[in-house]
Amino acid sequence: MAAAKTIEVSDLRLAYGTREALHGISFDIERNEIFAIIGPAQSGKTSLLRCLNRTIDFVADASATGRILFDGEDVLRTRDVFSLRRRIGMVAPLPVGLPMSIYDNVAFAPRCSGLTGKDDLDTIVEKCLRQAALWDEVKDRLNHLGTALSGGQQQRLTIARALSHQPEVLCLDEFSIAIDPVTTMRIEDVLKELRNEMTIILVTNLVQQARRLANRTMFLWKGEIVELGPTDVVFSGQPRDRRTHDYVHGIFG
Amino acid sequence: MNSSSLPGGGPARPRRSTVALLGERALELVIHISGVSAVIFVLAIFFFVFREAAPILFSADFSIREFLFSKEWYPTSAVNVRYGTWALTVGSVSVTALAMIIAVPFGLGAAIYISEFSGSKQRETLKIVIELLAAIPSVVWGFIGLTVMSRLIVKFTGAPVGVNLLNGGIILALMSIPIIVSIGEDALKAVPDSYREAAEALGATRWQMVYRVLLPAARNGLLAAVLLGVGRAVGETMAVLMATGHAVKIPHSPLDSVRTLTANIAAELGEAAAGSGHYRVLFLTGVLLFTITFVVNLTADIAIRGLRRK
Amino acid sequence: MRKARAQSLARWVFLAMTVAMIVPLIGIVVYLIWLGAPSLNWEFLVDIPRRGMREGGIWPAFVGTLYLVIISLAASAPIGILAAIYLNEYARDNWLNRLINLAVINLAGVPSIVHALFGLGAFVYAAKFGYSIISASLTLAIMTLPVIIASTREALASVPMAFREACWNVGATRWQTIRAVVLPNSVSGILTGVILQVSRAAGETAPIMFTGAVFFKAVRRGDLFPYELGDQCMALSMHLYTVSTQVPNVEESIPYATAVVLLATVLLVNVSAIAVRVWLRNRKKW
Fold this sequence. Notes:
The complex is a heterotrimer.
Chain A: E1 5-16, E2 19-30, E3 34-38, H1 45-52, E4 62-70, E5 73-74, H2 81-87, E6 88-91, H3 102-112, H4 118-131, H5 135-138, H6 151-163, E7 169-173, H7 181-194, E8 199-204, H8 207-213, E9 216-221, E10 224-230, H9 231-234, H10 242-248
Parallel strand pairs in A: 3-8, 3-9, 6-7, 7-8
Antiparallel strand pairs in A: 1-2, 1-4, 4-5, 9-10
Helix pairs in contact in A: 3-4, 3-6, 4-6
Chain B: H1 18-57, H2 64-69, E1 73-74, E2 82-83, H3 86-117, H4 120-135, H5 138-157, H6 165-189, H7 193-201, H8 206-217, H9 219-235, H10 238-243, H11 261-268, H12 277-309
Antiparallel strand pairs in B: 1-2
Helix pairs in contact in B: 1-12, 3-6, 3-9, 4-6, 5-6, 6-9, 7-8, 9-12, 11-12
Chain C: H1 2-36, H2 42-46, E1 49-50, E2 55-56, H3 59-90, H4 95-108, H5 112-126, H6 133-157, H7 161-169, H8 174-182, H9 187-203, H10 206-209, H11 236-245, H12 253-282
Antiparallel strand pairs in C: 1-2
Helix pairs in contact in C: 1-12, 3-6, 3-9, 3-11, 4-6, 5-6, 6-9, 7-8, 9-12, 11-12
């Protein structure tokens, strides 16, 4: 039985001014999978994510053509980008705690959507902090500043924030760069759980992380898809493309 | 899977009220308009000042050359009205020049001290003092010129009258120093520490480092500081009105009375009948001032912009 | 050995230059207070000028300045803050915004007498407000606007971009981001900028001299609301000019006392701005 597709990218071309960063790539992402995107720096991985949630709009000279279908609607042409960003969540590489209480950090997105009932917000805050494996550490100090937490805690707080608006897709852009290995493992466990509820797109520089978590992996290099397939094939001794083998085994990158 | 109201599945979501959405739209419109307002106001200033001045530009017996370069200023003469602002321009230039001769060395010296030689507590205090100095209103400076400085000048130079070019120059210097210090200090702070460390590694003393490395590196910003000081001095009205005396003459010594373009407008505007030639020429002087300070400030900004980009 | 001496010498030279500016100033201020002392008392503040301003107090000027400052800042602070929000949070780097930036710089450098001419041409005559508090206040507002824009922008820019991006990533609109993160964390800078312009508005003379401030206006002593918007008013800065240059045979201490009151008012406002800045800096959230 064919898996349901949730995102279909067709011929996506992205340019910053005159420099093209993505050269007309096409691929699909299936519902409820963990989809990893690997590749060396400057391959276009972050740019791709920013096209998905339209934060590419904030880059002055960026222009994107092509089509990104998300449940039938073209993301690049949608007018309500704010709803889009709540359906496609994003976790940035560097942990960010907003300068407000931990509670307000997680309640921020629901409040922006118009939710004001205290009980509703309490429920959401607890649920998301639990899902992000942060609840036990902060439950007694929800009114403390989010910026006072450690890096690993702030990254989990970011994930809690991303979960607070019930995304259907969760994108993580090299989430483990600035945090310790223990927290990284904890978050990886979180992602394995979350997969049941949503689709996860994981951009990572750590090829082993992709191997641990992803169902399918895409190797993006210099704005082009080199290979896309089931993770065990990509990481095997014989992937379809020689370059994949070389990158995965550390020969370049 | 949760039931949903969205195509393709997904949980039901809260929506913002239409009131909130419209309110935000309206607010963002007001913000955009406010942003453009600065342009509108600058154009308005130029427009309204020029508007009052314009008729005389087109009148038959007015000559721009005479306006700019003649030193005969007799606006109220019954028989032979002459509008030559040259003496006033020289007045402005000489007061500013004298002020800068005093202010630039002291201002840059203080900027260097604060930036390179002072401890952090000292620096905080000095910066606060400079800030308070900058806050002194120009009319108070004018008053100081009229009273304290005037007496000091009479006492030490034997001049008959204490309000003159020297007085105005000193007062203007004291007024311009804070801006030279503060922008100058910014310029020095902007020079990367690596320059200082490199100089130290080569065995240079603090002074050598300042003289040979920092000053050249901060050249643009220091120039901007001086230009902004000049801009302030040229545009100053009340202090020079009260401190320089009332003679519309080209000065031959620092103890001569002078009058600047700015002070002249302030002194005579009250007596000029609205719509008269005298009135319009005063507005024209305003246009001249606007242009001069525009050029000076623009140059300073270009210099600073070059600085910030580093 | 010689190097160390030269080094030390340099240090002392620069210190001397710095001190050379400050010490005379303190001397001047002391001199002003000393000569103004005979008149410096509560009566001086609340009483009205008498006998052609040769005696009495400065109340109408003091309250006039309050009117001018409050009205002009009520106009320029909101517009200035909103304009700065536009420039820092919404504007893209295109020709329009470079033009706006140029305009703000230009506006900031306009001499005060040119502001007076503008006020005269635009508010007194063209808008037909006549010589009045409203004309004078609006003229002061245009004068303080560019600096409020500049200082607000600096305050907004000091909030790190990462916070804004984190808000955008969860679907917040630009305004929601500004309201939740940017503004609350720029309050100290914005407030300081506005307070500093209060002191500037209180001290300026030329812009109000030809648009609404007068030598003398009869009011009741101690009256907090003696003026209407359409009235002309006295002002502290203007009054100093008047009593030191336009009134013959004035009792010597009166101009000095006026100068001291004006100076004290201005410096007090500035010190409170600095205090606000320090206090709020300590409550920084990151």
